[in-house]
Amino acid sequence: MLTAYDYVTAALLDQAGVDIILVGDSLANVVLGYETTLPVSLDDMIRHAAAVYRGTSRALVVCDLPFGTATDPDTALRNAIDILQQTGCQAVKIEGGASAAPIIARLVEQGIPVMGHIGLTPQAVHQLGGYYRHGKSDHAADRLIAAARQLQEAGAFAIVLEFIVPELAAEITRILDIPTIGIGSGPDCAGQVLVINDLIGLNVRPVPSFAKPKADIAAIIRQAVGEYVTEVKAHTVSKPKEPEVG
Ligand code: KIV
Fold first, then answer.
1. Does residue 219 fall inside a structural domain?
2. Which domain does 136 fall in, by range?
3. Domain total in the chain
4. Which residue among 60, 93, 180, 224 is buried most deeply as judged by most CB within 10 Å?
5. Is 234 domain-assigned?
6. pLDDT digits (tens, 9 = 90+) for 50-87
7. Cα separation values, 16 from 1, 11, 13, 56, Å
8. Where does ligand 1 bind, in terms of residues with CB under 6 Å?
């Protein structure tokens, strides 16, 4: 699974064989320039998810329910319906531990596929007090295992494990029947997810420690734009070719 936020990136990921495209609320940080994911709205998510969906022909497209849109089962259901109807996406993702279980159950009851998300849940950053690895103490590990079980019980079809101690992520993966999708949680999850910009090096801010970029697209853009600016200022932009006569 990889994130995408626009039509062309989604089409490229789809063509490259990604199974699931996530329109993450990381849209807030990566595309819209906010410090946290909290300011992104349902309308923002719908606009970008619809573009992503138009770029795909094969991958499953999952859209995040952003901060404040899944506060209770009925609110979440209304908002998930809006996402599915207005974007074409086939599933939604909801952040949260055990307290998200009744919300997920309500959506699943109505035929909406839901992906869970536990561990580091960025929508709760102010409560968590920062972005750090989860599941270090026995108590924290027990809570995460219990939450994973409850989300599975509620009907989630997969669960993202974000920045969880790798051994614990492996144990959760063994315990569950549904797939886990890890990010910064070690190699032993059923699948992996990354923010596309972190994979291709398209950032102006530092990337998380677990992201190992496979390209440096930011450098390519800086170079191409720099060359263009120099050429334009020197009036050396190549002229369009005149058609040959005779
Ligand atoms: O919003 C997002 O991009 C996510 C992934 C990091 C899992 O939730």
1. no
2. 2-214
3. 1
4. 180
5. no
6. 999 999 999 999 999 999 999 999 999 999 999 999 99
7. 12, 9, 5, 11
8. 3, 22, 24-26, 64, 117, 160, 162, 183, 193, 195
